[in-house]
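User: Design a sequence. Structure:
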């Protein structure tokens, strides 16, 4: 977690993972909140153990010090369906429930895979606009202590086309682009960040990269090797793409 940041100053969280628990599901289900860009942490006065507060906090979450959060980002709406991003929608539901007993469970994972889980009251949300775009803010109050989760090392990554594991892909020029899913093992690995390299961008392009998938578009006849490499542990998965004339 970032250290030495001044109290009430925003932290850039574009490379972080912010998740909210979907408590409507029987099994534990975490939904990523997409579109978030900044987190602002404000700590209260003294900790429960009697130590004094300061203007600086060593980490974004001091377990025995209560405080508040503001999550800021862009409203995410599916252009095709008009539906709000599921993670943002759950945050909005908590913001409008208005009861102190109805707290949200939030998991925050920094770029290095360090993760905490805590309960928060979502006290409100609002959208502000400037000349270019809208920004949405959610205000949260921490409830009780937060827990640091144990670090789980990534063992391997692999690729899937639908439900089938793949290492090669044959596709014709002009065919519908393929969405390739990245599978992390174990699924609970703490750091699931990755980078993608494409051997021959004139043959096949890689686009629409999400936290667990990417799209391959065939451009011209030939062969290209796409390599997915984990940021932590240098685990790799390779996809050899052969593009044929239509």
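Assistant: Done.
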């Amino acid at each position: 977690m970032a250290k030495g940041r001044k109290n009430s100053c925003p932290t850039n969280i574009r490379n972080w993972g912010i998740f909210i628990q979907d408590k409507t599901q029987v099994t534990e289900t975490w939904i990523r909140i997409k579109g978030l860009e900044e987190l602002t942490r404000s700590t209260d006065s003294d900790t429960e153990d009697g130590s004094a507060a300061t203007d600086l906090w060593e980490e974004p979450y001091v377990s025995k010090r209560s405080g508040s959060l503001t999550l800021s980002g862009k409203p995410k709406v599916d252009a095709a369906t008009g539906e709000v991003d599921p993670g943002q929608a759950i945050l909005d539901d908590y913001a409008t429930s208005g009861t102190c007993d109805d707290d949200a469970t939030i998991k925050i994972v920094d770029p290095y895979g360090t993760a905490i889980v805590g309960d928060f009251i979502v006290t409100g949300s609002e959208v502000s606009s400037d000349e270019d775009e809208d920004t949405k803010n959610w205000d949260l109050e921490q409830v009780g202590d937060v827990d640091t989760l144990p670090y789980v090392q990534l063992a391997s990554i692999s690729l899937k086309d639908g439900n089938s594991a793949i290492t090669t892909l044959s596709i014709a020029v002009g065919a519908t682009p393929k969405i390739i899913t990245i599978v992390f093992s174990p699924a609970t690995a703490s750091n699931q960040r990755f980078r993608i390299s494409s051997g021959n961008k004139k043959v096949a392009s890689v686009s629409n990269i999400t936290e667990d998938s990417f799209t391959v578009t065939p451009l011209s006849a030939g062969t290209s090797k796409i390599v997915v490499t984990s940021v932590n542990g240098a685990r790799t998965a390779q996809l050899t793409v052969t593009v044929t004339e239509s």
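Helices lie at 86-97. The radius of gyration is 21 Å.
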